[in-house]
Amino acid sequence: MDNNGNKTRIVKEIKVDTKKCVGCRACEIACSAFHAIPKFSSVNSARSRIMVTMDEVRDVFVPLRAGDYAQAECNGRNAYVIDGKEYDQCTFCPASCPSRDAFKEPDSGLPLKCDMCESQPPLEKPMCVDACTFGALIYEEKEVAIPVASVEASQEKRGEMKTGLESLIRKYGIKNVTETVARLGKKG
Amino acid sequence: MRYAETGYNLEIDLSRGSVDKVETDPKETALHLGGNGIAAKMLFDRVPPGTDPFSPDNLLIFGNGLLNGTCVPGANRVAVNTIAPLNGLMGHSLMGGMFGAEMKMAGYDRIVLRGKAPDLVYIAVHNDKVEIRDATHLREKGMYDTARLIKEELNDSRVWVAAIGPAGEHKAFLASIDCGNSSAARTVGPVMGDKNVKAIAIRGTKDVNLAHPAELWEMCSRLRKELNANPNVGDWMAVDEDDSFHHNNFSWGNARVRRKTFWSASLEERWRNLKYDHMSRQTGCWNCPKACHNVIKWPNRRRFSYKCYGKDTFHMASFQELDFTYEILGVSQDLGLDSYSTPQTVAFALELLDAGILTEKDFPGMPTDVRGRYYHLLHKIAFREDIGDILADGVSHAAERIGKGAEQFDHNTVKKFEQLPIKLGKLNPAYYLMIATGEDMAITQIEGSFPQDPILDPELREEFISKWDAVPDQKFVEWFRQWQKRDQLPDDAMVAIVDWNECMHYLDDSLGFCGFVSSFRGQFGGTTGYHVWNMPKVITHATGMEFDKDRLWECFQRNRNMVRALNIRLGLKRSMERPPEDHWAVRNEEYEQLLLSKYYDFKGWTFDGTPTKETLERLSLGYVAEDLIKRGILAEDDVTALNDPRAKKEKE
Ligand code: SF4
Ligand code: SF4
Ligand code: SF4
């Protein structure tokens, strides 16, 4: 709850200061080591959920965290000119998409997504941020209000979902439905 | 499973076009670690003496340091080794940046090139997929375009491309091999050109496995923060704009003129602005918490980066200012020329012109202004045109070919290798030994652990000692306490100091550490990042091999003796181990020779500088001794230098 009595949630944010990035890839190393099984047992940039695009000649240094899986590549792209430097859209796009091999598990090809280093007990800050000694990655936790409209909408949606599930359970039995939902949950 | 290393070499025979992934023997890693150590053994085992460096039988080895590609901060150096056309000895140059780590993630500890491609090719490596591809369309392209076009062709912006420029293709001895912001600058480039390999493009997506994950990670994240906070590691020249040391003490031109009062506050201010007005950012190497490369955008030039003394060489050779270096350095890099020996060679040529040994006729079409002349000659050298064909082989060879007294102007090379232009008043024993005997050829690759100067104030001295974790043995502390004058310590101290300095470089070059976080950074401030006390733990946790200081020190000795035996077999002689005649004003031949004998003796070498059978056997290098004995280079009963009658005569 914030002061106005609205519902709130914590948003974890990593601010990227591209001016400070030196291209050392310590963030990639930390992320891949943290997600290795067992933990820290290997280093492999391709398994990292953060990737640094770098090009000294164009002075482009952009660390980028993996976002959602995209089924198809964009049908047109933007080129950005920022402070006189040219960037292509993919440099800023966090999608694991068919146009490139970024953010894909190298063995299986399954999409990788940044999970903000969720772990128990929680880390003080994400691994990539901790590894970046240059201050290019800055971790912030923000409390943001959840818009009333979206709270209502989600309540409405839940109502709809409940009706739908009830009819499925009647048709297939509760065991089958729970098993299917669990399986789908794992895939995500 | 192999830890920290992959356990595989990529062997490419360019004559046959064959590619083999060869499993390596973990025992060799335990004995030689990696990098230059294993490369020296390979060259010893596989390249017979008498092999022309420009023969298909010569090897060009890109050898990862053992810890590259792991989470160990500051480990990223690839040792590039071959038999160098420059002097027929082992060529050794280190490349930082990303190439080594990417090679590890592609699944290889080293890439070994042999043979000679029928025409220009490049090698594309993506994990197990290795292709030898046509590169004729890249002929005489600069470094930048080569990397860009290969990335486009492979449709992968994340490959790392190590390439030669026109200079390497024309087998200029001054040619370098560059990858991103890093460069294996010296002696090895022409061999890549001779093998007709324009570039190696590499990308890897495999795991580099670590033996003791939790312990290693804990140690590395602590080290990363320590190195980041430690002002004594990294490159000072990246952050400190007071560069009076090089400009006032090193010689300008063809290692000729000292300008002791060159530096001033106003100059510093002007140059600081020049730098920061044009600097885009600083960049680093794989997994290093220091960023030593200054990226410069100069008007009408492509963006480029430099580090360390690379900032000074062009304007000091030509008596210009920093703006000249900023304007020409990127051009020189793009041609694939080493920024260290090239300006010295140009300065040498222009001095010969002044002296009348060369004439205007030798320089057709050369502009009259100094800056114009440098550009002109850079191109001539890189493409081996006119006089450039002679200069392309560096000062020493050029002097021999030009003759007519030009040899007198070759006054700053040792073993044909251009040295830092440091001309001193009198002999400094440790410096003498390093410059005379170093087989990494450049003083900066040998010095660096023991301080350059004593601390006279007893309180400050004790404070220094209290933080001196790197010191491998109490005896160095005692010597440091009694040390009053730079050139005055007992001979046995000087010899041991040189040995320690060398030890750290050999360890760095086989483990992959950058000298700036290790071997080169003990000499100022004492608190370097890595030393013989913390390295063993890092190695143990990364590789699973039990290591301690003694075992590590033995690896250094083994690699040092391996390199020495290789070079002796290639023709290295005691008489070649001498600094240029004018390196200090007053020479004392007798004392220098005695020092040399003492150093050889300490190392367990003969009067001729060859490791004795006993020395080699002690280091599990019995087969090396056998080989040298079989060839008549060593005798079963050869004794160490001071026990040789020739040394006894020397003393009398
Ligand atoms: S927050 Fe964690 S999971 Fe996300 S990119 Fe950084 S290290 Fe990887
Ligand atoms: S660790 Fe920081 S400085 Fe290094 S590449 Fe990542 S974001 Fe850039
Ligand atoms: S200290 Fe500098 S040169 Fe050495 S590895 Fe780090 S960034 Fe590279």
Short synopsis of the structure:
The complex is a heterodimer of chains A (188) and B (652). With 188 residues, chain A is an alpha+beta fold.
Number of extended strands of chain B: 20
Number of strands of chain A: 7
Task: Specify Rg of chain B, calculated over alpha carbons.
Answer: 24 Å
Mind telling me the CATH superfamily name of the largest domain in chain B?
A: Aldehyde Ferredoxin Oxidoreductase Protein, subunit A, domain 3
Strand order of the largest sheet of chain A: 1-7
Beta-strand portion of chain A reads 15-25%
Please name the two chains that share the biggest interface, counting residues whose Cβ lies under 8 Å from a Cβ on the partner chain. Answer: A-B, 35 and 44 residues
Query: In one word, what is the shape of chain B?
Result: globular
What is the oligomer described by this structure?
heterodimer
Low-confidence stretches of chain B: none
Question: Helix fraction of chain A?
Answer: 25-40%
Q: In what range is the share of β-strand residues of chain B? A: 5-15%
Class based on secondary structure composition and strand pairing of chain A: alpha+beta
Helix content of chain B: 40-55%
Can you put this structure into words, describing what you see?
The complex is a heterodimer of chains A (188) and B (652). Chain A has 188 residues and is an alpha+beta fold. Chain A has a domain at 16-142. Chain A is 30% helix and 21% strand. Chain A has a two-stranded antiparallel ribbon. The model of chain A has no long low-confidence stretch (mean pLDDT 89). The relative contact order of chain B is 0.11. In chain B, helix 2 (35-46) packs across helix 19. Chain B contains 25 helices and 20 strands. Chain B is globular, with a radius of gyration of 24 Å. Chain B has three domains: 8-203, Aldehyde Ferredoxin Oxidoreductase,  A, domain 1, CATH 3.60.9.10; 235-418, Aldehyde Ferredoxin Oxidoreductase Protein, subunit A, domain 2, CATH 1.10.569; 424-651, Aldehyde Ferredoxin Oxidoreductase Protein, subunit A, domain 3 (Orthogonal Bundle). A six-stranded mixed sheet of chain B has the order 2-1-6-3-4-5, sandwiched between helices. Chain B has 652 residues and is an alpha+beta fold. The interface between A and B is large, with 35 and 44 residues. Strand 2 of chain A pairs antiparallel with strand 13 of chain B. Residues 74, 76, 96, 234-235, 284-285, 288, 290-292, 514, 516-517 of chain B line the site of one iron/sulfur cluster (SF4).
